Amino acid sequence: MASSSSSTRTVPLLIDGRLVESRSTQWRDIVNPATQQVLARVPLATREEVDAAVASAAEAFKTWRKTAIGTRARIFLKYQQLIRDNMKALAAILTAEQGKTLADAEGDVFRGLEVVEHAAAIGNLQLGELANNVAGGVDTYTLLQPLGVCAGITPFNFPAMIPLWMFPMAIATGNTFVLKPSEQDPMVTMRLAELAMEAGVPPGVLNVVHGAEDVVNALCDHPDIKAISFVGSTRVGTHVYQRASLAGKRVQCMMGAKNHAVVLPDAHKEQTLNALLGASFGAAGQRCMAVSVAVLVGAAREWVPDLVAKAKTLKVGAGDRPDTDVGPLISCAAKDRVTALIQRGTDEGATLALDGRRPVLAEGNAPAAAEGNFVGPTILTGVKPGMQVYDQEIFGPVLCVAEAETLDDAIAMINANPNGNGTAVFTQSGAAARKFQEEIDVGQVGINVPIPVPVPLFSFSGSRASKLGDLGPYGKQVVLFYTQTKTVTERWFEDDVTTGVNTTISLK
Fold this sequence. Notes:
Layout: E1 13-15, E2 18-20, E3 27-31, E4 38-43, H1 47-64, H2 69-85, H3 87-98, H4 102-119, H5 122-125, E5 130-135, E6 138-146, E7 149-153, H6 161-172, E8 176-180, H7 187-199, E9 206-208, H8 213-221, E10 225-231, H9 234-246, E11 250-254, E12 259-263, H10 269-281, E13 291-297, H11 304-311, H12 332-347, E14 351-354, E15 378-381, H13 388-391, E16 398-404, H14 407-416, E17 419-420, E18 423-426, H15 430-439, E19 445-447, E20 463-464, E21 467-468, H16 475-481, E22 483-491
Parallel strand pairs: 7-8, 7-10, 8-9, 10-11, 12-13, 12-18, 13-16, 15-16, 18-19
Antiparallel strand pairs: 1-2, 3-4, 5-6, 6-22, 11-21, 14-15, 17-20
Helix pairs in contact: 2-4, 2-7, 3-4, 3-7, 4-6, 8-9
Domain Aldehyde dehydrogenase: 21-488
Pfam families: Aldedh
Enzyme class: oxidoreductase
């Protein structure tokens, strides 16, 4: 790491409503993964800067927690309109620093926008309960009160959507927030934070700090932070959960995955093949909900040549090209890791039905794209549990094809895998679909839907090794995560009524 140079744009911190130039001596380049162009430099915030962000949030909480629900809701009504008005510009920033296609970048922003819209309905979501006259003249009711300062740690693959999963719902429920976006692509996140300020989020209610391991640990340890939400790798998520939990915080961690799609012979062939390709190779496979294993059952095993033929038609190139289907991986290190795993798969006995390690870029890409982190659609067949390409999350445009004799065999394979983020079945049989959804031990199930991420009316419900913590992000569950349920039991006496001493536990 080196100090920032004056000739390169720097990404600021957001502390107490102000964009602040970091005093850090450690900086990281933000690199366009399609061209290796340095777009900007981001600081690894100092401990003092993290403390300042948390202190600002703690001070703002004193008044924000008392802000009327209607006032909070109106801020998010304005915020969602600002995001809509800036959709194209936000997508362009996202594509430049992350690599995904412009259409996919707009989808990234839009799925976050849906949560912002949900946050605007906080008046209906944060309702307590009341039971009248539970005993003689006694009423009991609950309050859903904010926790205080909350923090979010977000990954590189969805730099718009996942921050918008976190801070809008936390703030709408009356908390204040410190966000640490991925240091690999923080620019679109910062632009979203600026729009939040423009929408009326008061100073200190939302703060943004940048950094790597040291900043993550500082957030986990800080005594004034009450809850942490995390999305990212299993390795880091497990560390965050253990460290922050030991520090007495509420923690939710959405982590790694190995998502299977089961294809039964009666599935609609054309639609199924299209769905598999989109879910496997979209965003260059850098989705925690990507389909990374297709389990072909029975006669569906004969579909591999058609799957390969369709995959060959996908165009690889820079995300800002309108005809690109598969953009670059986030970094050179990611490319090296994915290509090494592909080689490992062949070494362990899988068949390389389609090799994307040296893709030919689509016509019209700039010459600089030759330096990009590109891996084309790759298909490995004959993949079995125990192979590294099956056991590890590849996080690249690699589809592993496994085989099963029956639906029962496919279900047993998936249930034996430790991860439980998402799964899908493709069939035209209602009976088979019902059997699958009942017997599969995975938190999110798609039926003829390859990526079953629910809309914000529901909660993201990954399970098993893909999740630590009881409550998921957004939806009804996250309202409970970001609030403390307080139960009040009350009795009022009339002036002329007296009662004697009662030494029992009864409320009579």
